[in-house]
Amino acid sequence: MAASDETPANLMVLTGPVRKEDVPALCAELGRLARPGQGPVVCDLRGVTTADLATVDAVARLRLAARRAGVGLRLRGPTPALWALLGLVGLAELCVEVERHPEEREPPLGVEEAVESGDAAL
Q: Where are the beta strands (DSSP E) in the chain?
């Protein structure tokens, strides 16, 4: 699903810390947005300030609620820490837009290392 395919009718925005007690209200909101044949509900996570198991649990329950409603769920903009946790529990495939950072030992793409003139060829 392209970002241009989302509409206010299928967009859900989460902000602040996500707590266990928020889950019923979040699932109810997803139920209001879910329309079979309309496409997946897009859950924007850019405003979520926590990357903990309560947040992961909320995402898992939203996915279950979406399945029960007969629609898909797509996540947009999780923080790198939240994306890593979602990956550990098998939910990272739901993410459609993730800000990725190069690994600490990998140079960013397009960066070449300098070579000293006295270095031997390998």
A: 11-16, 41-48, 73-76, 95-97
d(CA 111, CA 14): 36
The vertex-80 CA angle with 77 and 84, nearest 5°, equals 110
Handedness of CA 24, 27, 33, 36 (dihedral sign): negative
**Partners of 43 in the β-ladder:** 12, 75
DSSP helix/strand/coil, 99: coil
Interval 8-16 mean pLDDT = 88
Is residue 2 predicted with pLDDT exceeding 50? no
Global confidence as pTM: 0.72
Q: How far apart are CA 48 and CA 28, in angstroms?
A: 18
What φ, ψ does residue 97 adopt, rounded to 5°?
Answer: -135, 115
Instruction: Tell me the mean pLDDT in the region 18-33.
Output: 95
Cβ neighbours of 95 (radius 10 Å): 19
Buried b (16+ CB within 10 A) or exposed e, 37-49: eebbbbbbbeebe
